[in-house]
């Protein structure tokens, strides 16, 4: 318990030191000084500018991290709702690329994972509606491409619109 307390105290001191390096206020006030609103405003503006700069740096780092390929591979997924698969309920692409879909005809969808070579991964499909016997299959992926065609059918083999998940891993 004592080690945890000192570890947390050390981390707090380090972070406090980093904050002090990142922010410098132009005016220091001491006992007996006349405090003017202009000087206080200068201090607040300096703090606001420092926070804005730190937020911009953080945004740059987060964007760069999203674009980094994972050492464990690449992951992408999407969930298409009901009979309007061009509406993606949620999606993720670890390459940082966009995920898009278009409905070409009943039961036929074109799904694109930008910047992701689908020929280098495994693709998995899952139909969401468990109340009906349906299946979705993908077109063969034989060359470098970021787009796949998905075909969905009912138990009679007829094309049918349905909600589905698609996952790509490498």
UniProtKB/TrEMBL annotation:
Entry superkingdom: Bacteria
Name by which UniProt lists this protein: Uncharacterized protein
Naturally occurring in which organism (per UniProt): Oceanithermus profundus
Taxonomic path: Bacteria, Thermotogati, Deinococcota, Deinococci, Thermales
